[in-house]
Amino acid sequence: MFQQLKLTFALILSMSFCLESNAASDICSTCSCRNSETNIDCSYRNLFSIPQQIPLNVEVLDFRGNYITEIQVEAFRNLTNLTSLDLESNRVNEIKAETFQNLPSLKTLYLQYNTIVKIAVRAFDELPSLRTLFLSGNKITEINADTFRNLFSLAYIYTGHNNIREVKADTFQNLSSLTYIDLSDNNITDIEADTFRDLSSLTHLYLRTNGITEIKPDTFQNLSNLKELYLSSNKIKEIEVNTFRDLSSLKHLSLSSNEITEIQVDTFQNLSNLTKLFLSSLEIKEIKAGTFRKQSSLTDLNLSGNDLKKIEGEIFRNLSSLTTLDLGTIGLKNIKPELFQYLSSLKSLYLRGNNLTNIQRDDFKYLPNLEKLYLEKNKIENIQEGTFEAVTSLKNLYLSDNNITYIQRGIFENLPNLQRLVLRNSGIKNYEDGAFLFLPSVNYIDLGNNKDMMCECHLPAILNYTKTILKKNVYILGDCRTDLGELIRIMKYMQCQNYSLFQRNLQCETCSGMKCKDPKVTNCTADEPVCESKLSINDGTVKFEKSCSTYRECLEAMRNNTFTCNKWTSDVSCVVCCTGNLCSKNDLIVNAEGALTKLLKVHRNRCISKQKILTWL
């Protein structure tokens, strides 16, 4: 009898092993099984259902991109080692109660981009380890208050791009580990005041692109660790003063594309750690001085798309850390230099889409660290010579879609770091010889869609010189018209056999010393003669020189300027070069600061004029 029982038990074990092996073998004949069948990839296999027998030791299951319409209640039961289950991009329309039974190790569940309309109340009850839940891109209309009730480990929940109309007050109750909630792109019109109550671990909350009309004062109560809050593209009409009072850790706040008509001066008073603030496309007509008084950490500010025709520099007084400012499409007609007087750290300035017609010499004088300047889609007709003289850190300059008919020499001088210059569709008809000569770092000039621009030899000569002599490529885009009216590529213009970039028998006024007394005219004998003005400090001694130089040496000196010609340190120099008639227009302006304040106020010199250096204090 005992022997018979032993045989029976052995037979049962054998059959069990065979069934399990066959199940594994069956799924692995359709899918890719790796790591001793702990990682099974069934993605994009044209499956219409879940294989009903899956190895119990599986850890990762991937069913992405199939045609699965239904998940059987027992499909994944007792897969106790499963940590990741991916059902993204199928046709599942319902998650039934107890669908995910006894999956104690599951940490990540992907259900995005199905057609899920309904989630049963108890669907996720047996997932104690779940940390990340993806439900984006479905057709969910409602999240029941008990849907997530037992997901105590849940940290990230993605429910964007659904049809959710309402989020009940207790939906996230007791989810103490929750750090990330995405409810963007739904149809939510109202948020109850207690919806996010006491989610002390929450760091990211996305509510953009809904139909929210009101934010109640206690909506964000006790969210002391929240770092990012996005409320853009809703229908919010008003933000009360105390709305953000508990968000002391907030770094990013977006209120863009709402119907807000006023920002009260104390709205952001408790947001001292804010680094990015987006207030674009609202209905505000004024920003009051003091609105940003507590935002000394702010690096990015977007005010574009508002009707701020008059904007004063005082609103930026405390924004010493600001590096990006967007004032696009605010109806600006002119620039007052004082607008930027407190923004010496600014690196990117957006002024596109305004009504600017003239750019003046001092407009950007307070922006020594500016690297990107966007002036597209204005009505600019004139850029004063020396306009960009103070922004020698500039790398990208965008002037497309304006009414600039003529580019004169001197506009783009003293820009040793400029790499990209874009002048597309700006109505340019001519440019003066030498207009693009002293740009030592430039590698891209776009003059496209200036259909009436006449062909000149200057740009083809620069391209040929930099390619053959300097071994560097400069990309110059655009067409020009020949004398016969033919439209050709700028670089295809060939009527330049006798053209030279450099003036032969060039004469430079040369001298050396503080006041540079008694300058003399010197004939420059080099093959590529240019005139050089150099202001330097060595061992605390200030020195000014005017001399002959070569184009290559001057480009290298300009490229190696180790400061912006506005701020001084020891053992540095500021170089400006010119050639031919350019030398009667070239200005070198240096505002001394710091240790030199007592020695120098302003230095102005014309490269080949009879002006003297101003008296040094």
TrEMBL record:
SUPFAM superfamilies found in the cross-reference section: L domain-like
Record keywords, A-Z: Glycoprotein, Leucine-rich repeat, Receptor, Repeat, Signal
Keyword Metal-binding set for record: no
InterPro entries noted in UniProt: Dev_Immune_Receptor, Leu-rich_rpt, Leu-rich_rpt_typical-subtyp, LRR_dom_sf
Signal peptide range: 1-23
Cited Pfam families: LRR_1, LRR_6, LRR_8
PANTHER family reported in the protein's UniProt record: SLIT RELATED LEUCINE-RICH REPEAT NEURONAL PROTEIN, TIR DOMAIN-CONTAINING PROTEIN
Protein's recorded name: Leucine-rich repeat-containing G-protein coupled receptor 4 isoform X2
